[in-house]
Amino acid sequence: MSEAKSNGLPRLVIAAPHSHAGKTTITLALMAALSRRGLRVAPFKVGPDYIDPQLHRRAAGRASYNLDTYLVQPDRVQETFADAARDADIAVVEGVMGLFDGSSPTSRVGSTAEVASLLQAPIVLVVDASGMAASVGALIRGFRTYDPEVRVAGVILNRLGGEGHYRYLLPALEQEGVEVLGYLPKQLDVEIPERHLGLLPASEEDRVTPLLDRLSDLGEQYIDLDRTIALARTAPAPTPKDVSSLLSQSSAPRVRVAWAQDEVFHFTYQENLDLLSAAGVEIVMFSPLWDAALPENIDAVWLGGGFPELHAEALAANTPMRQAIRAGGENGLPIYAECGGFMYLCEWLEDQHGQRYPQVGLISGGTRMTDRLQQFGYAEATFLHDTLLGPASTTVRGHRFHYSVYEPGGAPLDCAYQITRKRTGESHLEGFRHRHVLATYFHVHLGSQPGMASYFAAFCGRRKCQ
After folding, report:
1. What is the 3-state secondary structure (H, E, C) of the chain?
2. Span 182-194, mean pLDDT?
């Protein structure tokens, strides 16, 4: 029997007053511990994140979906949530940054608070209380009253000195009318390592599996799971959402797309895969790192983001794969590549140690790693020409996050995009084209332009028939 039954889907949003308070640690502990109990946990992540959803998938045993009100319309966020959590016992949504941090310091647009309000979900605030006493009550009161449409209903304390510290803080919290669900002590034998682009990828199984086992143990030991489930049950019944318009199966001829998925390339939105599948695309996974050839009978290649700089030498050593991708691109095979995939398609890649390695060579020039973030944040791309993702004048939304810089080569490049940064309004040309190759630093969300997945499928289908 399921332990989480209610008229509406039990659900919680895990938020914090600021970044680095411990949201991911607490979220993974809850997902893993609830899954160990036998509950079907539907995981979600607010914002344009790739690595947290990978860890969620490992903790909950099912795909994690991004909920982002900049990348897609708010009603689409609600639809995605309703569809992905349809058969779950409980949904756990990890927030981004601080609870009210969004696209503007005077608005909740793009924030965890906005998503929680859209989902009518109670919020559990993760508070780093390592140096706090009575002030923890003032902090909770401020977050509870700041926006009356946002329901901060519970709290989990992080990095406490121990049971004594927890008991000392309880009166200050209880008088604020929140459910105190537990705590995690500091100096635990657990740490989520980070990469320069975020947390440790879930593909590093030798480190992730023990980590999740340990977090599950800690969730059971220090967090009151029964009270957590009870709080999740207080969420009202959501309004049913119809997702048939975007996820209904296409009657168009199916096409086969070779999708890069390995230790190097693993950044993608689950919704992109769903939308492509619904548009008639058969996804065939392959590894540019380990496979000697592309899958047979493919109609396109999709190279997502990841960490090619950490595997540049091994990618260079796989000469047959590099040659196969280059030959395909030169012969008119549609290839879409973003960020890490774009770096791989260039002539060379210089890693963080200054070593330069040959790559595929479809894009003139190369990329060089730096020690600082080069581009970060939301952006829009307007197509200046017809591309494999859409016709000229199409506008799509996405984000950029990379430490490398591109250095042009000898051959001139045609740019298909005008990219405009959301925060500053600055624009520049990008989206490099070569035959039917489109390569960019820009991470696209296909849901930002609902017809884009179908257009891509139709484009590949036309090429298939030629």
Report:
1. CCCCCCCCCCEEEEECCCCCCCHHHHHHHHHHHHHHCCCCEEEEEECCCCHHHHHHHHHHCCCCEEECCCCCCHHHHHHHHHHHCCCCCEEEEECCCCCCCCCECCECCCCHHHHHHHHCCCEEEEEECCCCCCHHHHHHHHHHHCCCCCCEEEEEEEEECCHHHHHHHHHHHHCCCCEEEEEEECCCCCCCCEECCEECCCCCHHHHHHHHHHHHHHHHHHECHHHHHHHHCCCCCCCCCCCHHHHCCCCCCCEEEEEECCCCEEECCHHHHHHHHHCCEEEEEECCCCCCCCCCCCCEEEECEECHHHHHHHHHHCHHHHHHHHHHHHCCCCEEEECHHHHHHEEEEECCCCCEEECCCCEEEEEEECCCCCEEEEEEEEECCCECCECCCCEEEEEEEECEEEECCCCCCEEEEEEEECCCCCEEEEEEEECCEEEECCEECHHHCCCHHHHHHHHHHHHHHC
2. 77
Residue from 339, 415, 460, 465 carrying the catalytic annotation: 339
The pLDDT of residue 198: 44
- What's the pLDDT at 244? 46
Q: Does 339 participate in catalysis according to the annotation?
A: yes
pTM: 0.92
Lowest model confidence (mean pLDDT) among 7-11, 257-261, 301-305: 7-11
